[in-house]
Amino acid sequence: MENLYAILGVAPNASDDEIKKVYRSLAMRYHPDRNQAPDAEARFKAVTKAYEVLSDPVRRAEYNQSVNHRIVLDAEAEAFELWRSLFALNGVALQP
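^ that's the sequence the OP posted. Answer follows.
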């Protein structure tokens, strides 16, 4: 399961306004019409999906509930994936 907060680069306690502001910035940066990079369209879709869930209070509550109750089988891999996604937001690719 993707961490939607990490995709947008916001904290889980971020306000609706913060989420909207970050979404607009990332959407403009990765929109396929503005960014010709090979992964721009995939990033745009991921950012849009994250915003759709986190901007809706009901869907956000359901997502938070599911994240809080999942079992982490490999904590090290989970931590690495979170760091990788954070660095990826800034254009840095970490080696697996």
